[in-house]
């Protein structure tokens, strides 16, 4: 059926076709492209097998760093209990109480080039109850501790939203309970998923992947157009199998739908993942798990603007907010496939589809140039410098000027054929 | 209202046309227009757009002339403005017209057809409904406005505007020309003045001639004159010369100097009431050393409004009620008397007349200066007719001009080409910036007083910038920012002044509005620009204010020099405020700390206790083992020796103790220092001037007699 469609779409490659879909004639047969992808897979899997993944402990870093581990429910429970006992004793002695919360501020972050990710340094801040500026936060912290203690005792999962609604009056808005939740997991030294609190599903996956979710086998080629929502609790995901050659990471839902509908993964065996913007924890965990278990190369398709690169960095090196758990959340060695600033001219994207960068964009771009994770990749520095210099950005959808299917029919195959990734 | 506005513009035209065309048509179609004619046809240029605006602008021009006049002789100004409404029959009797009853009702524009009547009645019923609804909701609203039939819509309303001051007065013989000739004036020099073009009072006269046909009346007396000049005149618009009815000297009974001008014009009080009152209020802000008395006398019998409770008449505003003005609503036309008392006797120095800066002159101006100069040679001319050209510099300039120029050559012998060369050099050469000495800013003190007087803010900060230059004209920006106060709207309240006159129209495009709204990050100064009551006062003074548009109504946002100066002046004020606001917040925090700390005790202890209880239960049921110390605590919990209450009390005790310690610390830190006391001005009972002020840009010399 897939073949039939293709035939209908291009009856004869005439010159008229060329003006409409530029560069189409440069495409070689799919078999050639597949060959290049196989090469990529071999090099990446061989490099993955030779180099053992480093951990923080392997490095003799000057400053001590904080990392969290996956903890079992009973150990989370007893950690909370001992903390609460300490507090209760302190209150009874008439000293009030206070928490010693690891600081998650930007000043307390460290990029470790050897690991290629951000880690948290060991600075902590005191959160006493009897202080006007911290009284709210320390109260919320006790409340969250109590709620998680309940979850542990009952051994159930709730979403962040659920947690917020248990005491709306105290938490006021969800950002407050969310940020304290991160503080708590950091304080207890466990990952956020060990607290049995999950975020709502956001990411989706489609393509040549079979895995088990809570015991059910899922075939991602048979999930319809929308794909399979990435399950929030990664600990119930297992048995990953795939015949894909690479993983395609897509920033946006629109591009994802295009690729899913065109069944791009059947033409070039791949797994397509998107988190619809900034990635959530579940998607990042899932991507890492895929990468680690299947040993596939990861190619990223993001907007050609500073935020696209930022999203890329979150997948690759972790976010500052959750750097305490960067070991589990980051996926090393993500290749920047497109859309890169140099592509704008290379693929002759018309002027009217490019957008001028705002002051804010340019500032973000310049700030990014200072970031270590960009600096370590000279190709990225070059691209970003070009972007800041031309002051132009473009979204993935800019390619739609040549037709909605230009992305899946021409752009991506050509990129893959030319091995044009950084 | 609008129909009369339109028709009032036309009368001069046909008249003129008839008188002119028969004689001149054969000779040539070329016609000349007198300045008065031009302004009569384009009266919007001077701010006379419609009857309402005309009334406003008339008041404004007269008040500003009065202030200029009083300040020019260093007299503390006392200005009395009266607007007297003149009913139709009174107006007719003034012009000697007999009241005529309508015979053919349907002839009139405001004739009400049966359909229209139905519509109006239903509308009235609706309005009444709203009234009763509001009243039933307990809102303090007034009774339905008494509409007197259909009177008013197309009917013009007339006002007698009187403005009396204690200024210089005018020389007896100059009076006709000062009022009856457009574009003649005493303020043409390069000097910071309120008026500029010699247009204001004359425009009022032209408007009165256009709308009522009644002449202007002037009473004037100068210091040392034992008589009062009285003059009644109107203007011959076609020839731009005064047409004198009466011009005489009268015996003066009281020692008075100043002028009193009375003009009868068509206007619209109901729609421009708030603008006029705002204007008076703001001019009082920027000139706190002046005393104003403003009166509006309605022709509605006083007893009608007096019979209503004061709260109703005060709160009344048809615009708020119905979304439009009812011209006939007597409440909108109730009598108003407002006195703006003097708050200080410190007057800013009189602005000095200055010479042109070489970078601001154009070809024509250079030519004019050459014809007017008394200096013989080029060197002296350059040295004395411009600022910032010292002798040595003049010599260098002449050397640079070329071989055909010499210092000794006669200035008047310069050819047009040579003048162009001078102009070019003036454009390119570097000159020192003009100093701000010739300017007379309101002064931080006056600005501050004005703000305090009018807004009664909680805190206020003022800042006076140094003189800066735009196109060869020096300017000074002063700003005041206040927070809080009575009768102040939430959010930004912007007050703009240019050469010490308030600007009320075209607020949106003004540089001050734009700056305050877009370029100031209020939150960084701990000011909430949507919630707090913020007053922003910016006063710009200059020898030439770069007004945008036709009227003197706003300063454009495109002049970066002024925009930057305004921004930094406002920021300076905000920086001053920030520390005060921080202190206040700290003090408030002190008061509220205990309450805030106690508020969270139940939540915190409740959470801790719940966990303890759960633990105690699993301890009892032997699900889990705990250390001895912990086990003991949990036993106490299960035996209810430790309850939620225990925790709560203990934490409350701790809060109490911490609060006490912090209060003590705050007290020792801040000490007993209070805000510095501010000097208060008390008006002297006998305001007799027994001194002479000698003004200089830097100081004032006061000679007590």
How would you explain this protein's 3D organization?
The complex is a heterodimer of chains A (422) and B (705). Chain A is an alpha/beta fold and 422 residues long. Chain A folds into two domains: 248 residues, Dna Topoisomerase Vi A Subunit, Chain: A, domain 2; 134 residues, Winged helix-like DNA-binding domain superfamily/Winged helix DNA-binding domain (Arc Repressor Mutant, subunit A, Orthogonal Bundle). Chain A is built from 18 helices and 18 strands. Chain A has a six-stranded mixed beta sheet with strand order 11-8-14-13-15-16. Chain A has a three-stranded antiparallel beta sheet with strand order 1-4-3, with no helix packed on it. In chain A, strand 3 and strand 4 form a beta hairpin. In chain A, helix 4 packs across helix 5. Chain A is globular and about 80 Å long. Chain B is of the alpha+beta class and 705 residues long. Chain B has four domains: 280 residues, Heat Shock Protein 90; 71 residues, Orthogonal Bundle (Helicase, Ruva Protein, domain 3), CATH 1.10.8; 131 residues, Ribosomal Protein S5, domain 2; 87 residues, no CATH class. Chain B has 22 helices and 18 strands. In chain B, strand 15 and strand 16 form a beta hairpin. In chain B, helix 20 crosses helix 21. The relative contact order of chain B is 0.08. The interface between A and B is medium-sized, with 30 and 28 residues.
Question: Which helices and strands, and how do they pair?
Answer:
The complex is a heterodimer of chains A (422) and B (705).
Chain A: H1 2-9, H2 15-20, H3 30-50, E1 65-66, H4 73-92, E2 98-102, E3 109-112, E4 117-121, E5 124-128, H5 135-154, E6 158-159, H6 160-165, H7 168-171, H8 174-188, E7 197-198, E8 204-207, E9 210-213, E10 216-219, E11 228-229, E12 237-241, E13 246-250, H9 253-261, H10 264-267, E14 270-274, H11 281-294, E15 298-301, H12 306-317, H13 326-329, E16 334-338, H14 341-346, E17 355-356, H15 359-370, H16 372-375, H17 378-390, E18 392-393, H18 406-417
Parallel strand pairs in A: 6-7, 13-14, 13-15, 15-16
Antiparallel strand pairs in A: 1-4, 2-5, 3-4, 8-11, 8-14, 9-10, 9-12, 17-18
Helix pairs in contact in A: 3-18, 4-5, 5-8, 12-15, 15-17
Chain B: H1 2-9, H2 12-24, H3 35-41, H4 51-72, E1 78-86, H5 88-95, H6 114-136, E2 157-164, H7 175-180, H8 200-211, E3 216-221, E4 227-236, E5 241-251, E6 258-267, H9 269-286, E7 291-297, H10 302-306, H11 310-315, H12 318-322, E8 336-340, H13 363-372, H14 378-385, H15 391-401, H16 416-428, H17 444-455, E9 459-464, E10 468-470, E11 473-483, E12 491-498, E13 501-503, H18 511-519, E14 533-542, E15 547-548, E16 554-555, H19 560-599, H20 601-620, H21 628-638, H22 644-670, E17 691-695, E18 700-704
Parallel strand pairs in B: 1-7, 12-14
Antiparallel strand pairs in B: 1-2, 2-6, 3-4, 3-6, 4-5, 7-8, 9-11, 10-11, 11-14, 12-13, 15-16, 17-18
Helix pairs in contact in B: 4-8, 4-9, 9-17, 14-15, 18-19, 19-22, 20-21, 20-22
């Amino acid at each position: 059926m897939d073949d039939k469609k293709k035939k209908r779409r291009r009856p004869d490659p005439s010159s008229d076709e060329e003006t409409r879909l530029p560069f189409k004639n440069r495409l070689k047969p799919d078999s050639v492209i597949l060959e290049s992808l196989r090469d990529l897979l071999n090099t990446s899997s061989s490099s993955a097998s030779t180099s053992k993944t480093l951990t923080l402990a392997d490095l003799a870093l000057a400053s001590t760093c904080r990392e969290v581990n996956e903890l079992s429910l009973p150990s989370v429970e007893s950690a909370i209990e001992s903390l609460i006992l300490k507090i209760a004793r302190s209150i009874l002695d008439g000293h009030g109480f206070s928490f010693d919360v690891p600081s998650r501020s930007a000043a307390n972050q460290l990029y470790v080039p050897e690991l290629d990710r951000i880690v948290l340094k060991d600075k902590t801040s005191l959160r006493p109850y009897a202080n006007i500026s911290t009284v709210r936060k320390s109260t919320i912290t006790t409340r969250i501790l109590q709620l998680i203690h309940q979850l542990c005792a009952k051994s159930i999962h709730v979403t962040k939203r659920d947690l917020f609604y248990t005491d709306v009056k105290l938490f006021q808005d969800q950002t407050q309970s969310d940020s304290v939740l991160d503080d708590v997991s950091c304080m207890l030294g466990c990952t956020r998923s060990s607290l049995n609190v999950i975020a709502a599903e956001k990411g989706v996956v489609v393509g040549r992947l079979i895995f088990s979710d809570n015991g059910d086998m899922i075939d991602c080629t048979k999930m319809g157009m929308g794909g399979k929502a990435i399950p929030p609790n990664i600990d119930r995901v297992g048995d990953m199998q795939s015949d894909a050659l690479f993983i395609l990471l897509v920033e946006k839902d629109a591009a994802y739908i295009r690729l899913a509908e065109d069944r791009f993964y059947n033409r070039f065996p791949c797994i397509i993942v998107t988190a619809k913007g900034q990635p959530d924890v579940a998607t990042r965990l899932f991507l890492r798990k895929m990468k680690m278990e299947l040993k596939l190369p990861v190619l990223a398709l993001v907007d050609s603007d500073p935020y696209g690169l930022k999203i890329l960095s979150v997948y690759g090196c972790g976010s500052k907010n959750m750097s305490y758990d960067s070991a589990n959340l980051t996926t090393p060695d993500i290749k920047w496939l497109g859309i890169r600033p140099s592509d704008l001219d290379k693929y002759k994207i018309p002027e009217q589809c490019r957008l001028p960068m705002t002051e804010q964009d340019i500032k973000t771009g310049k700030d990014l140039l200072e970031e270590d994770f960009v600096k370590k990749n000279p190709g990225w520095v070059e691209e970003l410098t070009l972007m800041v210099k031309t002051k132009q950005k473009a979204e993935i959808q800019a390619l739609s000027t040549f037709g909605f299917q230009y992305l899946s029919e021409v752009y991506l195959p050509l990129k893959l054929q030319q091995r044009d990734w950084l | 209202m609008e129909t009369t506005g339109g028709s009032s513009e036309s009368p001069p035209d046909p008249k003129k046309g008839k008188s002119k065309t028969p004689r001149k048509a054969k000779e040539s179609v070329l016609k000349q227009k007198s300045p008065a004619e031009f302004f009569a046809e384009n009266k919007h240029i001077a701010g006379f757009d419609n009857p309402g605006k005309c009334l406003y602008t008339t008041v404004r021009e007269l008040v500003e002339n009065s202030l200029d006049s009083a300040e020019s002789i260093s007299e503390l100004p006392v200005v009395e403005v009266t607007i007297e409404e003149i009913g139709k029959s009174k107006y007719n009797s003034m012009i000697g017209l007999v009241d005529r009853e309508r015979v053919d009702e349907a002839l009139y524009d405001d004739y009400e057809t049966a359909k229209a009547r139905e519509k109006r009645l239903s509308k009235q019923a609706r309005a009444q409904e709203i009234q009763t609804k509001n009243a039933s909701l307990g809102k303090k609203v007034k009774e339905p406005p008494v509409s007197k039939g259909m009177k008013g819509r197309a009917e013009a309303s007339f006002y007698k505007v009187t403005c009396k001051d204690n200024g210089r007065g005018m020389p007896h013989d100059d009076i006709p020309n000062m009022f009856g000739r457009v574009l003649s004036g005493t303020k043409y020099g390069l000097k910071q003045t309120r008026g500029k073009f010699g247009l204001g009072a004359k425009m009022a006269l032209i408007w009165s001639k256009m709308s009522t046909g009644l002449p202007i009346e002037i009473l004037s007396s100068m210091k040392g004159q034992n008589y009062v000049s009285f003059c009644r005149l109107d203007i011959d618009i076609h020839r731009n010369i005064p047409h004198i009815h009466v011009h005489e000297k009268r015996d003066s009974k009281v020692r008075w100097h100043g002028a009193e001008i009375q003009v009868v014009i068509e206007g619209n009080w109901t729609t421009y009431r708030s603008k006029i009152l705002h204007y008076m209020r703001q001019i009082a802000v920027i000139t706190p050393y002046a005393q104003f008395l403003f009166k509006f006398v309605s022709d509605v019998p006083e007893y009608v409004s007096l019979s209503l409770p004061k709260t109703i008449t005060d709160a009344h505003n048809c615009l708020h009620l119905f979304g439009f003005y009812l011209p006939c609503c007597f409440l909108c036309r109730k009598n108003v008397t407002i006195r703006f008392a003097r708050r200080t006797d410190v007057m800013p120095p009189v602005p000095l007349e200055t010479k042109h800066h070489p970078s601001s002159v154009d070809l024509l101006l250079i030519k004019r200066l050459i014809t007017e100069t008394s200096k013989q040679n080029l060197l002296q001319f350059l040295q004395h007719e411009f600022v910032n050209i010292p002798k040595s510099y003049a010599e260098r300039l002449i050397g640079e001009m070329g071989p055909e120029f010499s210092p000794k050559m006669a200035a008047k012998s310069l050819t047009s080409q040579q003048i162009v060369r001078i102009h070019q050099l003036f454009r390119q050469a570097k000159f020192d910036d003009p100093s701000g000495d010739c300017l007379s800013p309101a002064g931080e003190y006056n600005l501050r007083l004005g703000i305090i007087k009018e807004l009664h803010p909680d805190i206020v900060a003022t800042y006076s910038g140094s003189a800066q230059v735009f196109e060869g004209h020096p300017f000074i920006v002063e700003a005041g920012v206040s927070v809080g106060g009575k009768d102040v709207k939430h959010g930004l309240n912007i007050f703009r002044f240019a050469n010490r006159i308030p600007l009320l129209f075209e607020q949106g495009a003004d540089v001050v509005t734009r700056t305050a709204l877009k370029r100031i990050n209020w939150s960084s100064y701990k000011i909430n620009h949507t919630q707090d009551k913020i007053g922003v006062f910016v006063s710009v003074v200059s020898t030439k204010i770069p007004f945008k548009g036709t009227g003197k109504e706003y300063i454009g946002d495109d002049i970066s020099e002024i925009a930057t100066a305004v921004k930094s002046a406002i920021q300076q004020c905000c920086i001053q405020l920030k520390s005060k606001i921080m202190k206040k917040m700290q003090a408030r925090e002190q008061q509220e700390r205990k309450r805030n700390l106690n508020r969270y005790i139940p939540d915190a202890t409740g959470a801790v206790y719940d966990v303890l209880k759960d633990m105690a239960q699993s301890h009892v049921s032997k699900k889990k083992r705990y250390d001895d110390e912990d086990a003991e605590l949990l036993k106490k919990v299960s035996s209810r020796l430790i309850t939620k209450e225990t925790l709560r009390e203990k934490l409350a005790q701790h809060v109490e103790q911490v609060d006490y310690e912090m209060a003590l610390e705050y007290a020792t830190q801040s000490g007993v220092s209070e805000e510095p006391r501010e000097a208060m001005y008390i008006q002297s009972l006998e305001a007799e001037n027994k001194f002479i002020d000698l003004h200089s840009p830097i100081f004032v010399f006061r000679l007590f007699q």
